[in-house]
Amino acid sequence: MSVEHGTTCPLQCPQRLLCLSSQNFIQAKRSRKRDAVLSFVSRRLKGLLSGLSSVGPKSSQVSNSIQPRASSGSFRQLNQAAKPFKTGRLQVTQLHSLYFEVYGNPNGQPAVVFHGGPGAGCYANHARFFNLNHYKVVLVDQRGCGRSTPLGCLEDNNTAALVADFEALREALGIDRWLLFGGSWGVTLSLAYARAHSHRVTGIILRGICLMRPSEIQWMYGGGAGNLAPAAWSSFTADLGKRELKNPLAAYHKRLTSPKDANSRDAAAKAWMGWEMSVGFGLSDNLQRWNGQKWDPAGSQPIKPPSPPSVLVNGTQHAAQPSSKGSPRAASAMQTPAQASASSSNSSDAGSSSSSSPAPGSISTSVAQAMLECHYSFNNAFLEDEPLLEGLDPLRSIPCIAVQGRLDFVCPPRTAYDLHLAWPEMELLIVPGAGHSMYNPGIQQELLKATDRMRFLAQPQSGIDRRQVPVQRARSMASI
After folding, report:
1. Which of 17, 367, 414, 479 meets the CB 3.0–4.6 Å disulfide criterion with 269?
2. Which stretches does UniProt call biased (Low complexity) (predicted)?
């Protein structure tokens, strides 16, 4: 037996020297301590990871980091469809009458939808962005569109008048304060209303940020967006003369608001809506191929021999047609709100259908929308004297969540970023890979989350100024 002299034996053996057996004892003791430490660390790590996974979905709603793109199967679907519990009309002037619907819980938290366009009208599906067990949701067709009358009327139709209409509707429905939910043009109108009546607003949810500034209008109708959809832009400007090409918006304004006849007006409206749908919903992710006659998704069809130049021009016009595989909003853009709800899971919620067979001398809702969009765009939304980015101080204490598609070519992210700079308390979410549609899976999911969160954020705050409270900063702004 070998021994190591000069060391006390922990086994208290007679030799009181560290023998080989005592060395084994010490090594075993150290090994047990190491195993115990490793086991403790492992249990702690598992506990921490389990805790993180249990709060992951909840905390991701307020995370400042860029969120990974979820698979299509993991996106939230719209809430269940329901019928309105109240419908009606509000006579706001001797000329204009507004159609409205109210969905959800009569005693729920009030919310109002500001639809886009201008002139697009409200759809029953808009109410499905809210949990109708908790919300009381008001949908209203703005002046001159949808089921409001007279359809397509431009007289007394401006932003200040629309703001006054919403305030009159709030009073008529006996609502003290409400949540604002607006997309695209609805962003402009929501902010204009909130600026004028901030004490009536509990919170704001925005999608596809649009402020109707001259630079934004020039982008859409001055050729900027045409660089992204050149075939569609060629179709949009095909019937304009050389002088008109210098200002396509003015040319269309004349054709839509002071037409020679109804046929020329309707042709201009068709071209206008075709251009808008092409930019907003018609830019396909599929490989596109010119087959000698027209553009189509590349497939197995053989390429035909080149056609004469005259056919190529007609083929370019075909390319401007919007994709039938776009969003639900794109597919129903030419329908009335009643028709759109009928094509969803809420067909019993139909109503009048003014665009299916217009009466002689009347106009369709799509023509009315083109007229209203052109009317507001040509006049810079009647906001030149009061740009929306100026005078935002009354809004900065109001909770606001804004959702913006990174690939939105109708309302590019630059506008969202400018609003963020002017309103740093606002929470801004940039959705990767998403365009303009509120039905894009990523945008739809963030809007559903926003309405859920606003049930708690949009409560009376007893005079608390949110500018003095830690706020949610914009997500992924550094990479815009």
Report:
1. 367
2. 330-363
SS3 call for 339: helix
End-to-end Cα distance, the chain = 76
pLDDT digits (tens, 9 = 90+) for 339-371: 333 333 333 333 333 333 455 457 899 999 999
Least confident of 253-257, 286-290, 444-448: 286-290
CB 177 within 8 A of CB 202: yes
Q: Which residues are catalytic?
A: 184, 408, 436
Q: Which CATH architecture has domain 83-216+381-479?
A: 3-Layer(aba) Sandwich (3.40)
Structure tokens at 262: 């109804």
Per-residue pLDDT tens digits for 263-273: 999 999 999 99
Rounded to two decimals, the pTM is 0.71
Cα pseudo-dihedral 324, 407, 204, 477, rounded to 10: 160
- Give 368-395 as a DSSP string: HHHHHHHHHHHTGGG-TTS-TTSS-GGG
Lowest-confidence range among 60-64, 138-142, 427-431, 435-439?
60-64
Whole-angstrom Cα distance, residue 9 to residue 471? 65
149: β partners = 97
CA pair distance 226, 108, nearest whole angstrom: 45
Ordered strands of the 135-140 beta sheet: 86-91, 97-104, 135-140, 109-114, 178-184, 201-209, 400-405, 427-431
What pLDDT shows up at residue 285?
63
Domain residue spans of the chain: 1-27, 83-216+381-479
Res. 178: pLDDT tops 70: yes
